[in-house]
Amino acid sequence: MGHIILENVKKRFGEVTVIPPLDLEINDGEFVVFVGPSGCGKSTLLRLIAGLEDVTGGRIIIDGKDATSVPPARRGLAMVFQSYALYPHMSVRKNIAFPLRMARLERAEIDRRVKAAAEVLNLTDYLDRRPGQLSGGQRQRVAIGRAIVREPAAFLFDEPLSNLDAALRVGMRLEISELHKRLETTMIYVTHDQVEAMTMADKIVVLRAGNIEQVGSPLELYRNPRNLFVAGFIGSPK
Ligand code: ADP
Ligand code: MG
C-alpha cells in the first residue's frame, strides 16, 4: 500500500502548461520530498496525485489500480493541510474525528481511531480543548491526526510547516520523520526549503518549471547533482 506511479502526467491551466509530461514512481513506504522554487508546480503535482485537480493527460496508478478519474475521497490518500484549516469551534477530538464522521464510520470505530492517533501524537490530554487553546505545534499535530485516522495509503503534505516559527519548524520536522518511521506509510512532502528536503527525504524530486530536474537520495543529489540548478538549489559543498 502506498505505491504511486505517475505515467506521462500533464497539466495545463488554459494555455499555460504547468506540468509537461512527467513520469515518477513512488515506492511503498517511501518519504518523498518535492522541492523547487516557488511557482515550479509542486502544489499542482501534489493536487494531481490527491485528485484535487484533474490531469490534462496521462495516468495515475495507486497500488496497482488506475486512479486517474477516481475522486479524491476514494483514492485512499490523506492531504495534511496547515493547522489553520482546523475548525476553531470544535474540540480537538471532534476535529480529528471529522473525516470519519463524514465517512459515516461507526462510533466505536471512530473512538478507537481517534484514541490511537492521539496517543501517537501525544495529544491524549488535549482532546477536549479547542484549537485556540493549543500551541502552534499541537495544532499542527491535530491537523496530522485528522489525516492519520483515515489510515491512508499515503500522506500528502503541502508545506505544512511554512507558517510556524523557525524553532517550532525544526521540532515538527523531527516529529514528522519520527511518525514516518513509526507508521511506515508513504509520505509525499512538498517544500521549497532545501534543509527540510535534505533532512527528511528518502528520495528528493527536484522540480523546475514543472520538469523533474533530478530524482535521488539526498546523498546522491549532494554528491552528483546533474546540473548547476540542482547543485545551486540543493546546496553545494562550501
Ligand atoms: P508551487 O507550489 O511550486 O509554488 P504551484 O503548483 O502552486 O507552484 O503553481 C505552478 C504554476 O501554476 C504557477 O505558475 C501558478 O501560477 C500556476 N497555477 C497554479 N494553480 C493554478 C490555477 N488554478 N489556475 C491557473 N494557474 C495556476
Ligand atoms: Mg505550493
From TrEMBL:
Residues 4-234 form the ABC transporter domain. GO terms for molecular function: ATP binding. The keyword Membrane does not apply. The chain holds residues 1 to 238 of 334 of the full protein. This is ABC transporter ATP-binding protein. Keywords: ATP-binding, Nucleotide-binding, Transport. It comes from Chelativorans intermedius. Belongs to the ABC transporter superfamily.
